[in-house]
Amino acid sequence: MKKIVRFLMFFLFGGLVLGVGLFLALALYYQNSFPVNTWINGVYCTGRTVEEVNEELVRTQPGTSFSLVDPEGGTWDIPVSDVDIRPDYTAGLKSYLKQNASFYWLKNLQEPVSSEIAPEKYIVDEGRLREYFEALPFVAAEQERGEGVHIRRSREGYYLQDDNSGHLNREKAFAYLKDCISEGRSVIKMEEGGCYEDLPDSAEDRKQREIWKQICEFTEKCGRISYDMGTETVEISADTAADFLEAEPDGSCPALDERGLISVRESAVREWVEALALQYDTWGTEREFAATRGDTVTVKYVTYGTQLDTEAEYSYLLEALRGTPDAAGAMPHVPAYTHQGYARGLDDIGGTYIEIDMTEQKMYYYAEGELTLETDVVTGNTGRRMGTPQGINFVYAKERNRTLRGADYASFVKYWMPVKGNVGIHDASWRSRFGGQIYKTNGSHGCINTPSDIMAELYELAEVGTPVIMFY
What we know:
Elements: H1 2-29, E1 38-40, E2 43-44, H2 50-60, E3 66-69, E4 75-78, H3 80-83, E5 85-88, H4 90-100, E6 113-115, E7 121-124, H5 126-134, H6 137-144, E8 149-154, E9 157-162, E10 167-168, H7 170-183, E11 187-189, E12 196-197, H8 203-224, E13 226-228, E14 233-235, H9 238-243, H10 266-280, E15 286-290, E16 296-300, E17 307-308, H11 310-322, E18 337-339, E19 353-357, E20 362-367, E21 370-376, E22 391-394, E23 399-406, E24 409-420, E25 423-427, H12 438-442, E26 448-450, H13 452-461, E27 467-471
Parallel strand pairs: 1-6, 3-11, 19-27, 25-26
Antiparallel strand pairs: 1-2, 3-4, 5-7, 8-9, 10-12, 13-14, 15-16, 17-18, 19-20, 20-21, 22-27, 23-24, 24-25
């Protein structure tokens, strides 16, 4: 009996020793390989080493995309396969193995254990990455970039070409790019890497900067000047401001006076004022006019029209450009005129005017573009060569109860509005009919005879200065 007990005890002890030995052997085995039923990122890892699992994850996991943003905002996709950018899960896998292997593997027997691990860094082929980096347009352009500070001229005016500021340090930039990829940054902005440096200015560079400062102040002064031309406002552009400055013979840079200051080119200022006058002056010119009857007639400005006082404006602008910023006065500036119309602008007739169609023997009054009054009239007697003269004129006076006198007449009128010399618009109580062909044989001495009730209304509506367009 004792022999049996001793045998059983020996057998149990041997089994215990064998089990403990087997457990310790597996624990030792799982120190370097993943335990049973282990899944990481969907990959079966049981019995595999960290290196083996890492290679499997690199091969099967979807790749991360990387892009580089240059200083101008351009985005460049980094070709992951060409540059050979690979994720590295090693650190995460080792940490996982340390926490879940050895004596903890028994819990995996109950059910499979799935985990997700992100790569803690990325490995890149440095040679391929450098080849890609050096071929980027903004990096290649940096290699061609010069040094120094230069004032240049374009169609938009002067500008400063500063080749000393913001130089790309290519070695710093490459190291920053490599570090960002290693950290797994999907968007890499070069301006955030401290890769751009300013070169020191030479004495000539400092001189160019001082001239540029003067140009900026002058351009800003010009930019504050604006002309109120009526319906339009004319401003001085940066290109025009550049034209106003005396320049070196090649035109690339402003010329400096003996004090080292930029100076105004008087001839350019005069040319600009004369060009403004050429654009807006109508005095003594002709224009196309859309008649109410439906066609377009050509009418000459006679007593009406706009003419800029170019000498006054030349003196004003020259003083404003040479003086302090306040020398230009209140803005927008209303120019001086030798002749000024009732309306100002490219269309100096505007929307309020009197139209007299001698062919149709009609008169119309427009107020702000709307036809307000229409009537038949009788104009000058063409049969006696007293036809009403054509032209663009204006109401230069208004009188009540006046006797109009001539060599063979004296006519009392209640309303008198002269438009050119002795030619005017007035009531004609002695007429019972208006319009038609009366003017050819029984017309006026040149005035525009108007029905009394209509004339009373027109007298109240029209103001001194109102344009009067007269044509056949």
